[in-house]
């Protein structure tokens, strides 16, 4: 029998009624003849509630203890779902990330999966059980509980699918697949029925919330097709898989991200300063979005280096900001930034899209604080307050007017 891995996110498991509906969907899949492994997130906003609870105790809680706390959310969901499945006559068992064999590095709050040893999962499948795994969590080689960061349940699901040689991995959420922009911001966003791994990964790295970037990387490495679907009532889907290069040239999607801060410095001894900043960031486990470094040995005053941080996983930025200023002389911290990214195959083969986009921002008197590119992406660093408007401008120009 084929193994199907399904993942259900927070909104899909927001309450008991939805858990009961999901249990029926899983039961139907099992009765169709497939073996089923289910990965679940915490119910609704319970992760945010746990974070708030931690903040009420400590302004700067230890990351290890945060992981112990946050792993509770998924354990609640998985045990309740198994109760519902068993009441439907479906034999099932819940497993934590560590019991399922998800091994990570020793980084807390943003760990990376380094290996999956699914022996217990395979044993339970052999016993004809539906296996329900708590997503977002694993265990480090030091045997500490770790969490995988925002969207980490996607990574859990795809990593398990790869280790189990599953036929496919189905990611269920409150949207019916991937769109050309965030449909909650841009109502005219276009549904994308299929995407290559590379485009989806760039979208995720740039801030798209549909799929986790590490999950897409796992799928790409193992050639696991991802089916992004709506949990209830959706008829559309987006399939992420290998596609021939160049089939869809030009801008495919506009992705925006808020809450970015730039940390920078210049002058002499820039190599040492930069090394110290990276070590500092690693020790505090900051999620670095981008790094830049430019040294001028002839005129050190022109040397510049720094990095961009996403504030989403930093629990107490105000304390962190003060600590940075106390630890580094003449450091420049620029909060209140955001990014808008154009994603597409071959968009940087020449400079036409970049130049037209710069012109569009200039015509609307929008100041650019930075530009970065990859083979599939052009990103503009802007003030946070103008990010949403800029995303709408770009979508109108590159998606709506061209369609």
Quick rundown:
Helices cover 35% and strands 27% of the residues. It has 403 residues and is α/β, with parallel strands linked by helices. The chain is globular.
Secondary structure layout:
Elements: E1 3-8, H1 16-31, E2 35-40, H2 46-57, H3 63-87, E3 92-95, E4 102-104, E5 113-116, H4 119-126, E6 130-134, E7 137-140, E8 145-147, H5 152-163, E9 168-173, E10 178-179, E11 191-192, E12 194-196, H6 197-205, H7 213-222, E13 226-230, E14 237-241, E15 253-266, H8 270-283, E16 288-294, E17 304-310, H9 317-327, E18 332-343, H10 352-363, E19 370-373, E20 377-383, H11 387-400
Parallel strand pairs: 1-2, 1-9, 2-6, 3-6, 4-7, 9-13, 12-14
Antiparallel strand pairs: 4-5, 7-8, 10-11, 13-14, 15-17, 15-18, 16-17, 18-20, 19-20
Helix pairs in contact: 1-3, 2-3, 5-7, 6-7
Helix content range of the residues, please? 25-40%
| CATH topology term of the largest domain | Carbamate kinase
Strand content: 25-35%
Strand order of the largest sheet: 3-6-2-1-9-13-14-12
* Structural class estimated from helices and strands: alpha/beta
What's the helix count? Answer: 11
- Main beta-sheet strand count, sense and barrel state: 8 strands, mixed
Mean pLDDT score: 91
What multimeric state do the chains show? single chain
Please tell me the total number of domains. 2
Number of strands: 20
Q: What's the end-to-end separation, in Å?
A: 42 Å
CATH architecture of the largest domain: 3-Layer(aba) Sandwich
Low-pLDDT runs: none
Under CATH at level 1, the class of the largest domain stands as: Alpha Beta
Shape summary: globular
What Rg, in angstroms, do the CA atoms define? 22 Å
CATH superfamily of the largest domain: Acetylglutamate kinase-like
